[in-house]
Design a protein that fits this description.
Blueprint lengths: L12 H18 L5 H19 L5 E7 L5 H9 L17 E5 L5 H7 L3 E5 L13 E5 L8 H13 L2 E6 L7 H8 L9 E5 L7 H17 L6 E4 L8 H12 L4 H18 L14 H11 L2 H20 L14 H4 L14 H8 L9 H19 L4 H10 L4 H13 L9 H32 L16 H72 L4
Helix pairs in contact: 1-2, 1-9, 1-18, 2-9, 9-18, 10-14, 10-18, 11-18, 14-15, 14-18, 15-18, 16-18, 17-18
Length: 553
């Protein structure tokens, strides 16, 4: 059941305009996720408010609506004090609205907007009471139960544009289901601008009249209009006509009825749309983003890149600190990052622009994601979309789900570009330079010792004077110590360097993994989380604007 709206009977024009704008904003924000029929009706209400408030004047439009044979036209003439409407004796009777206008203020623009051609200006002398009816526009409508479809449609059209409804019934038809189900109950939120008339009451005795009014009051309470005002009238005897005029004068007084009607229109439309919006939504911080980032990282080949970074670090470390006599072998080994076309992304290097990526790199050579990795991404996005849409109406949940599942090709390209732009190398560690210098020194010592020994051996073979070797401790010759010490020192230093390189590679891999995951998280936020968040924010704004339009804020 649609919640009842609260009618604001002290509405000022600026507040009415603000609530109408709020309804228009809600329609724009929620269009596509709100019920199409309710949106169409709300758009009609917004146009109606704009058009009605743009009409110059302070008139109050009161519609006499009733079933065939209720004496509606005769009552209209009795209120006007002249035979303006022609009561018929055959059904159907009234086919077009007739207007009676009190006061000197021009009402042509209003009547044109209402689509009423038959007009009667009520002279001041025709109203002998002391009441002030200036500004009243009284309409005699076609019968709402007419056998002619055109007449029924015309009555319903004008009722939608009127400020006050006067439902005219009679002792025979006061319980008619069409009156109660199709009109009174459907317009129960408009009780502040509703009057019920029991016409032809002269046919009843006073006791029957009281009983009939009590029964009608009970039916109106069942319709949801417990405070409905009932006036017993008779166009023939004049019973209740003056009381009805007093009610009409109260409606005209202050020129509030039009704004109250429009306010209720806006509130009713907003309340109807509000059923398509939840009372709350998940925040972006509550979404399962870690699972999504993990799945995207796997899909982007982050483990492969991290492993390549570690191997690249070890190879580069060995190239700087390894045994000089075997470093040349490294040149024949494939470079891990170069094979992935990621060797340009070094820390401290100039930023790579989109043009660089397209013209030089294009895409990386990271292996495409496996079916399992793609399935993990699809599952993670579905879970995120399901979590974000939890508790939302189905249309909003579907919109969230659509936002959480962008085209996979776009995401894959964005992930690849994120990897390309992430620095994968760092500054060379200081120990590389130290170890490299020591390796060079030890290599020079070993070579010098070797050449010294060759010179000693050559001199002995050629029977030249002996070259001194400066024995140490009387046992070890200096050149031998230089050769063996240089070689063993270099090998030992290389072994220490390999251990340090493995440790550094793990640290570098962890640092790069954090960078890459941060980049992947950025893609996740931009391509998946942010669109989902925008839908949730739009949902929240739609709810806020509808609450404003409904008068709850």
């Amino acid at each position: 059941m649609t919640p009842r709206t609260t009618t604001d009977t002290t509405l000022d024009p600026s507040r009415l305009e603000a609530r109408s704008r709020a309804l228009a904003d809600a329609i724009e924000l929620g269009n596509g996720q709100l019920d199409a029929a309710a949106v169409e009706d709300a758009e009609r209400i917004v146009r109606k408010v704009d058009e009605r408030t743009a009409i110059v004047g302070s008139h109050t439009v009161v519609a006499l609506a009733g079933a065939t044979g209720s004496g509606k036209s005769s009552l209209f003439n009795a209120v006007v004090g002249a035979e303006v409407a022609q009561p018929g004796v055959r059904r159907p009777t009234t086919s077009t609205p007739t207007a009676a206008v009190w006061g000197m203020e021009p009402a042509g623009e209003l009547l044109t907007w209402l689509g009423v051609g038959k007009r009667h200006m009520v002279p001041k002398s025709q109203d002998h009471g002391e009441r002030d009816l200036d500004g009243l526009v009284l309409l005699d409508l076609p019968d709402f139960d007419s056998r002619e479809t055109r007449n029924r449609e015309e009555a319903e059209r004008v009722i939608k544009l009127s400020d006050v409804f006067v439902w005219v019934t009679d002792p025979q038809k006061y319980a008619d289901a069409r009156l109660h189900d199709d009109y009174v109950k459907a317009l129960r939120d408009y009780g502040a601008v509703m009057v019920v008339v029991l016409n032809q009451a002269d046919r009843l005795t006073p006791e029957q009249r009281e009983q009939c009014i009590a029964d009608l009051q009970r039916l109106l309470e069942a319709d949801g209009v417990p405070d409905a005002r009932i006036v017993a009238t008779s166009a023939t005897t004049g019973l209740g006509v003056e009381e009805l005029k007093d009610r009409l004068a109260n409606a005209v007084s202050g020129a509030q009825a039009a704004r109250v009607r429009l306010s209720t229109d806006v509130a009713t439309a907003a309340t109807r749309l509000r059923t398509g919006v939840a009372d709350g939504e998940r925040s972006a911080e509550d979404l399962p983003r870690r699972e999504l980032v993990d799945a995207l990282a796997r899909s982007a080949g982050i483990p492969t890149v991290v492993d390549a970074v570690a191997r690249d670090f070890r190879m580069e470390a060995w190239g700087h600190t390894g045994w000089p006599f075997t470093r040349w072998v490294r040149a024949f080994k494939p470079q891990p990052l170069k094979r992935l076309r990621l060797d340009r992304t070094a820390e401290g290097a100039p930023d790579i622009t989109d043009a660089d990526v397209r013209s030089v790199l294009g895409r990386s050579s990271i292996p495409p994601p496996t079916p399992a990795a793609r399935s993990a991404v699809e599952l993670a996005t579905r879970r995120l979309g399901h979590a974000a849409g939890e508790g939302l109406p189905q249309r909003w949940a579907d919109a969230v789900g659509d936002a959480a599942a962008p085209p996979s090709a776009d995401v894959a390209d964005a992930l690849d570009q994120a990897v390309l732009r992430t620095p994968l190398r760092g500054r060379k560690p200081m120990w590389w330079s130290v170890f490299g210098a020591l390796q060079v020194l030890l290599a020079v010592i070993a070579v010098a010792g070797f050449l010294w020994l060759v010179a000693v051996a050559g001199a002995a073979w050629l029977q030249l004077p002996a070259i001194p070797t400066f024995e140490v401790l009387g046992v070890f010759a200096t050149p031998a110590i230089m050769l063996v010490g240089g070689l063993l020192g270099g090998l030992l230093l290389a072994a220490i360097g390999r251990w340090l390189a493995a440790t550094g590679a793990r640290r570098r891999a962890k640092a790069v993994d954090r960078r890459l995951r941060s980049a992947v998280s950025g893609v996740s936020d931009e391509r998946i989380v942010e669109p989902v968040t925008l839908v949730l924010e739009r949902h929240a704004l739609t709810r806020e604007r509808l609450d404003v339009a409904a008068g709850r804020r």
